[in-house]
Write a structure and sequence with these properties.
The chain is of the alpha/beta class. It is about 35% helix and about 25% strand. The chain has 15 helices and 20 strands. The longest helix has 16 residues. It is globular.
Amino acid sequence: MKTVSLLYGKTGAQLTLPDRTVVLAGSHPPALANAHQAVLAALAKPIASEPLAALVARKRPRTVAITISDITRPVPNRQFLPAILQTLNAAGVSDAQVVVIIGTGLHRPSTAEERRILLGDDLLERLETIDHAADRPETLVKVCDDPPVSLNRRFAQADFRIVTGYIEPHFMAGFSGGRKGVCPALVDLATVQRFHGYATLADPRADNGVLEGNPCHQIALAVAKAVGVDFLFNVAITADRQIAGIYCGELEQAHLAGCRDVAGWTTAAIDGPFDLVVTNGGGFPLDQTFYQTSKGMCTAMPALGPGSTLLVLSHCGEGLGSAAFAKLLLDYDNDWRRFLADIAASGVTLLDQWELQMQARVLERIGLEKLLFASDGIPLDTQRHIAVTPCDGPGPAVARAQRAIDQYLSQHPNATVATIPDGPYTMLQAKKA
């Protein structure tokens, strides 16, 4: 047997698995040696764009809006924002002219502690920082009529717009970053509903690593282009959340360059389905809600056949997620087939229905009984009603997961086993013949 470390909450988790277990992981790129200098160099020589300083000098903006991701994404803002501000200041833009907008999409507002995690006290003291509020019409402005799109007013009306974020495999949009820093991060509810609509997610091209023909990608890119992004700043990150690569400049070209590198770093090749796959929800901050846990589930799908069992370990310290998502899960009470039939027929996109629709992809493949789940943040009584099979019994989640693994192996001693230590941050791909 061997011990494997998986992402889980803030502490990680260790599980004992057979020596024959296949560990599915990417190549883990190294951190850049001097992040601050690397950022300055990238800003001076961006992709398919003039240098940031030259763009700002030519436009002479009175206001600059910089978007950042919310707490659900481990973006190293404090490593790159000082260099961006240094460049803006040198080009004549003062801190007082800059607003930082946290791209919450439809997620809840950020807390004071989360803002400190995202930006640190120094940047919070220097810069006006606000949350996007998709549910407050007075904070939005219409930017497109066909289809109708409303956007964060402060971003839309800024003289110069910078979108930041990081690039990772994304189970709907192919890759995160780029256009997603505008849509869904800064748009209204109706636009998010189109981005996450039933027909959009029913398209098999709405998947990890796929950009060509991906309707999620196309919707988000169209919105970002309609709004206009003056400068993109994306990074790739290491396992310990340091900057591994910088991709800045023109919205599409810089993002595509990052996607190519990230695909190479995060892809793990597989021969075919395994009998047992053990994965996770991505660790803190991603795995703090069950809402986000479907990413880890869907990432494992290339390793799953109809007879496979998937065990997902996810902390869920904040519980299920939004009130709307919790109600949806509990109202359908494991009847995911009825849920799919209802949303296919209704033509209406309910708030947060998209995560359960993605979870249903896994359920269609392996069934409810073979989707095992272990968490410390959700009571076992609740877990029995959210379309998973809980790892039952006493003790913390890691102990319950280990018992479930041991029991499975005792019943299937010759089972093929795989684990995905980085969960949703790994992209699985069939080996080429």
